[in-house]
Amino acid sequence: MKIAGMIKSSLIDFPGLVSCVLFVPGCNYNCFYCHNRSLIDGSYVITDPRMVIQFLEKRVGLLDGVVITGGEPTLRSGLMQYLAMIKAMGYKIKLDTNGSSPDVIKQILSEELCDYFAVDYKAPASRYKEICGNGANADVVLETIRLLQHHDIDFEVRTTVIPQLSEADLLTMAKELPLLNKYVLNRYRKPEKFIPSDIQRVSKTPYSSLELQHLASAIAHVQPNVKA
């Protein structure tokens, strides 16, 4: 199991818990606004996974949980074993995912290896390839979300509201999604690293906090548990 980086203590990444955040390299999407672009091709590995386990062993009782993020963690062949090791220490586990691997999520659920999931729903289904790259498929993401709903486990769906998404786009997305217990609209910020040809796309003015609140209100009749 390759690890590309670690935040030793976070108060914001796992709702209600003090957590360690582990970054996993490799992703099958290529979102133009990605903030972890160095992780996409899977070659950026800086942390010895054994060192991470040793760190977590020393922090038992001091940390509440571990967040596995990326990149896309569900692409890693050693994910199940790594989750099981962390779970055996007594930690709560949160998994961040783009939702592209429902079969992996199904296995994680069957083995009860995660306590909380965060799934990104990035764009209307008709615009998924435009926003996330040719390998992206909204139908598979929706399958993952419905799977989590069926298992009655804590999870949230998140959308980074890039400037390219209009109110009409967000309303379409709200209708494509099942009724959610928690839908979070996150404010866009320009990434530090991006493909030079995307300079105009990443440089568009982001929605303000007030505008984001307005967008949340505009879709609340479809997704009443939305927040910005």
Strand content: 15-25%
Q: What is the subunit organization of this protein? A: single chain
The CATH superfamily name is Aldolase class I
Rg from alpha-carbon coordinates: 17 Å
Quick one: CATH class?
Alpha Beta
**Tally of DSSP helical segments:** 8
Description:
By secondary structure, the protein is an alpha/beta fold. The protein has a single domain, classed as Aldolase class I (TIM Barrel), CATH 3.20.20.70. The chain is built from eight helices and eight strands, in the order ββαβαβαβααβαβααβ. β2, α1 and β3 form a beta-alpha-beta unit.
Concise structural overview:
This protein has eight helices and eight strands, in the order E-E-H-E-H-E-H-E-H-H-E-H-E-H-H-E. The chain is of the alpha/beta class and 228 residues long.
Q: Could you outline the blueprint of secondary structure elements for this entry?
A:
Elements: E1 5-10, E2 19-23, H1 49-58, E3 65-69, H2 79-88, E4 92-97, H3 102-110, E5 116-120, H4 128-132, H5 138-150, E6 155-161, H6 167-176, E7 183-187, H7 199-202, H8 209-219, E8 226-227
Parallel strand pairs: 2-3, 3-4, 4-5, 5-6, 6-7, 7-8
Antiparallel strand pairs: 1-2
